[in-house]
């Protein structure tokens, strides 16, 4: 049993329950937007939209992992954050490869589809960011969720800028540049998540940590 007062335990359980509910909501939002963006990205020939779609899918998987380990002790949550950091890094490498493929094939995406879907994705990710704001300074697992959502909003703004760039230049380079930036953001976020998780694992290696209920 955790060594804490009744009030403290009740408060912790209530906070965990609220966080669990928020994670279910953002999980649903990300799954829906993945389906919307992957369909639109393939139809429009946009590397940025396809990258953003896979980012939605990766985030949905990450939220699912967070839900699974939510009742575990901090060491398990830190290990989950390591998994999420690794998956985020792999996503970054995939996007970089996709950029190279589109560059070699000279793809010019549909800027109208990019703009419309980009606005919808921005609204969805902004809602997730607001819902997760209260837990931005939590443990490595919570921070990883916050970092993913923060990067998503930045990526959506970049997709909208790419749509304008494609419209203005008539080329696919703005789309490719934004997709490349998204790859770098994913890699940077992965490094941050992994660094925090490793620090927590070192700090708690020899500690007995109570399990949240």
From TrEMBL:
The chain crosses the membrane at residues 21-44, 56-74, 86-104, 110-133, 153-170, 176-197. It is found in: Membrane. InterPro entries: Cation_efflux_TM (IPR058533), Cation_efflux_TMD_sf (IPR027469). Keywords: Membrane, Plasmid, Transmembrane, Transmembrane helix. It is a multi-pass membrane protein. One of its GO terms (molecular function) is monoatomic cation transmembrane transporter activity. One of its GO terms (cellular component) is membrane. This is Cation transporter. Residues 23-201 form the Cation efflux protein transmembrane domain. Pfam families: Cation_efflux.
